[in-house]
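Re: Re: token formats

Sure, here are both.
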Amino acid sequence: MTKKSFKAAPTPIEPQADDIDRFVQSGPGKDSVTANAQMQKTANEEPLKRLTIEVPKSLHTRFKALCAQHETKMADEFRAFMEQRCSEWDAA
């Protein structure tokens, strides 16, 4: 029987103040790499806000499948819909 060898646990990195701010601004479920990429992506754009909605499972499945067929992201399609609807209401 061979012995298993384990690597030493990685040394934890102390978060800096700006790392904590980025984490808080990006919302839950984001690691620092994802938060940094998001901050760089939107550096020249308006800051993003997270929106959580509940929809019937069948509608979600249908929407997700259609977005996949059209090779678009669900979030992009939903943002476009919201923009169109706001424009309609602004014009009224």
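Second one below.
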Amino acid sequence: MSSDHDLVVVGGGSAGHAAARTAAGLGADVALVESAETLGGLCILRGCMPSKTLIETANRMRAIREAGNFGIDAPEPRLDADRLRSRLERLVGGFREARVGAMRSTGYRLVRGAARFRSPHQIEVRDRDGSGSLLGARAFVVATGSHPHVPGIPGLRDTPYWTSDDVVALPRVPERLLVVGSGAVGMECAHLFEGLGSRVTVLARSERILGGFDADLAEAVQRAGEERGIRVLACTEAGAVRHADGRFRVSTGEDGTEHEADALLVATGRRPRLDGLGLDAAGVALASGRIVIDERAATSVPHIFAAGDCASPVPVVHLAVRQGEVAARNALRLLRGTHTDPPAEWQEQQAMVGLFTAPEVVKVGMSLDEARRHGLEAREFRHDLDDQGKGEIVGSRHGFAKLVVEDGSRRLLGAAAVGPGMIDCSHVIQLALRREMSLDELLETPFYHPTLAEIWSYVAESDL
């Protein structure tokens, strides 16, 4: 059986739903194909929402432990894991129901099954019972997301190790946790379990944690974590893994030094979920295992677009949503021949990336090195939170914020910060970058006093 649509979206996460919703809202005949047994997508089911729910509890436990710094005598907090899981299930269930409701009422056709391209204009959709049907479309958006990458460490697959997909269900709070990987997922989980009461050791292959961030940001996060007991072993790669009597033993180094823990988290990144999709039959180009897209979310095949973690060089949800919307608009622009209309675009250079470690770390736009790689003459300005009113009040000891500014024009190119609440506080800079504001225009913007967001005015004033 064959069915034809204007647009078929493959993948029902944040990017796919955004693409299908946008195209349907513009009057297109749209189908969305989703293979997952449970609707909702990574962000809601196994990513942002459950992880930040757990992190909120960890942060509150940490705040209680540190209450003495604010003149409060408080007993050691005790976690009721069952009540936390109940809260987690209630919140995630509500988020999922809202998304499913939108998927069923936004005007596109929802098709359940696994998709595989048979040609550039046709996919086969296989149901769980093995039956298949053909679905044709004039254009496609691929938004299949990502999955945890598990390296081939000897013995690992024979053990009950965790990935981030497991952590968000809070299997338990181990006395000792060993984290393999020091990137975004690894460090968020390390700070999560430290807050909940675990003793955490992180194995970092490189010389420092958080390789995608500037060294000074990573160093601040590491210092804060180490002061609370998180142990980071730099230049340390996991060797063989053994599991017996409920304990993990992981060897490292040439001498086979063993590290023992009650739980093992493998957090070595995520990979695009493209297996079985048959992109070769459609002629879609890949690079480093990721679909290649441009600023219009277009792939190497004119009528096939892609969005989200399967394609984005910056795999964050808000950018995935934007890419999905851009892909849908440009697909319809192509189908309707409205080439006189300007194409929609997403902008990598204005991307915002935040980590909910303790303290939080955030990057918006370009770093100084990135600006110079783009051939721009730029400078960096910085101010510490422990030299700012609200920063001192909340007890920030490692926080700071910095701005990257183009010489001559004094145009804002990027920003970064580490400290309490810095992700929320950085949306003002996201807007400033979007509006292509200069440092002088930021200086003219009044910030309420005393607030953490006021740190940006302090950074701007450091050039005076």
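The chain is about 30% helix and 25% strand. Residues 2-148+272-336 form a domain with the FAD/NAD(P)-binding domain fold (CATH 3.50.50.60).
- S.
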